[in-house]
Specification:
By secondary structure, this protein is mostly beta strands. Among the domains are: 99 residues, Thrombin, subunit H; 131 residues, Prolyl oligopeptidase, N-terminal domain (Methylamine Dehydrogenase, Chain H), CATH 2.130.10. Helix content is 2%, strand content 44%. It has 1 helix and 36 strands. The longest helix has 7 residues. The chain starts with 6 loop residues before the first strand and ends with a strand.
Length: 445
């Protein structure tokens, strides 16, 4: 088959765009030594305007895209044959057997569906959002649902999508002085093709579900995030008050089954949640607003629909970014000594030593540790034998963040630590103050 080889300019000369399933990449001049991936593994990541793919047996990645806009949110298709990513309001798809872009769609976000199609979202007119289903093999797009909110969350099996709409607020649910035309948000669900569209839960339901001892802010139902459990048995959503600045605090989390039963108030100020593979448990990290977290809270393991919680964090540490192993036996997470004892004003650049840890619920084991490096964003390979993580450092400044960044991997017992992608290929997407790395720039298959 004749391959079209697209030539793109890059640092240090001309570099050839390749289909990532054909051969390994070539080493860059001055690049640090990296190790080849173990069998059956694939990685992809973005660096500025580039997208790279690394497949098992290779020690150098393939450059699969080099464009003008920043590339973000790189994700594999379910079968590992295609990659999608976002650049300049477009969703682009590249394939393992074809150099260059295979398909291109308008969209501000996307999700792969199990059958190889994409669920796209784009801003609506004059406001809200439009959800559509796209087929990369044919290039066809079909609009299926419109919502007042601009975000859509397809279920893991690809049969449903959840989103936010609005309704008139019940009496007493909004604060005095709020605009008279203010509306309260609701969570809706429809089939993936837009049929069977119905309201799942409204603000009156949430007000009834909140315990009497919880201080509830009026007008709190503004959904900012939804999350399906791994098998789709539960839908968890986070809300915030209309008086909350950018939803940095005043947040409330609920869970509900997709058939509308089991509505349960979970907690306030939830930082991150990860579900066990079978949805029987989830691990939750509580924290305050992003820039106002004065008092770290413990990482706990919980059962859906229950208020019971098993605390897994000692009192003098901050645990975060938990990720359940594919076999459900262990949780890998980031931990560091607690440095926050008072109100944090935009978080001063105090950088404690932090590393990757693992626990089975009873024993905590440290896997990485160094006073010179900051390890973060752990994730499991699909076979559960390897853990990938970002290594930052050693220099840190408030305005520039960490001086060097690399993608590393290790076995689940902490052995065989080695670099997979070198710092020159990786983008660091910093929030104000340079404190936080995005974790949407690479994905494992």
């Amino acid at each position: 088959m004749l391959l079209l080889l697209l030539i793109a300019a890059c640092r240090g000369g001309e570099e050839e765009l390749m289909a990532f399933g054909q051969r390994c990449g070539d080493a860059e001049d001055g690049a640090p030594d990296v190790r080849s991936l173990p069998g059956g593994q694939r990685l992809a990541w973005s660096g500025a305007s580039r997208v790279w793919a690394l497949i098992s047996g290779c020690d150098q990645p393939v450059l699969v895209w080099d464009g003008e806009g920043e590339a973000l949110s790189v994700e594999w298709s379910a079968d590992g044959a295609e990659l999608a990513f976002i650049s300049d309001g477009r969703v682009l798809v590249v394939a393992s057997d074809q150099a260059g872009v295979r398909a291109e769609f308008e969209g501000s976000a996307y999700s792969w569906l199990p059958d190889g199609r994409l669920f796209l979202e784009r801003p609506g007119e004059p406001q809200g959002g439009v959800g559509s289903v796209a087929d990369p093999s044919t290039g066809t797009v079909k609009d299926v649902v419109t919502a007042y909110g601009s975000k859509f969350w397809p279920s893991p099996d690809g049969s449903l999508t959840a989103y936010a709409n609005y309704e008139d607020c019940p009496p007493g649910s909004i604060p005095a002085g709020a605009p008279t035309d203010y509306h309260c948000s609701t969570i809706w669900v429809s089939a993936i093709d837009g049929t069977d569209e119905h309201k799942l839960v409204g603000i009156a339901d949430m007000l009834d579900a909140v315990p009497d001892d919880v201080h509830l802010i009026q007008g709190m139902i503004y959904p900012v995030d939804l999350q399906w459990s791994n098998t789709g048995q539960w839908l968890m959503f986070r809300t915030c008050g209309i008086s909350a600045s950018l939803c940095l605090d005043e947040r409330y989390v609920f869970e509900i089954r997709p058939d509308g039963t089991g509505l349960h108030y979970v907690s306030d100020t939830v930082g991150s949640i990860d579900w066990s593979p079978d949805d029987s448990r989830y691990i939750l990290v509580q924290e305050g607003g992003r820039y106002y977290d004065a008092y770290p809270r413990p990482m706990t393991v919980r059962t859906p629909g229950s208020d019971d919680a098993d605390v897994t964090s000692p009192a003098d540490v901050e645990d975060r970014e938990p990720q359940w192993s594919p076999d459900g036996e262990q949780v890998v997470f980031v931990s560091s000594p607690s440095i926050r004892t008072g109100v944090c004003q935009l978080c001063p650049p105090e950088v404690p030593e932090q590393g990757i840890w693992i626990t089975d619920g009873e024993v905590r084991t440290q896997l990485t540790s160094s006073p010179e490096w900051q390890d973060t964003s752990p994730a499991w390979s699909r076979d559960g034998e390897w853990i990938l993580f970002i290594r930052n450092g050693p220099e840190y400044t408030e305005n520039q963040g960490f001086a060097r960044t690399g993608l590393w991997m290790m076995r689940r017992d902490g052995s065989d630590q080695h670099m997979v992608a070198n710092p020159s290929q990786i983008i660091v997407d910093e929030l104000p103050g340079g404190r936080t790395l995005s974790y949407d720039w690479w994905t494992a298959q």
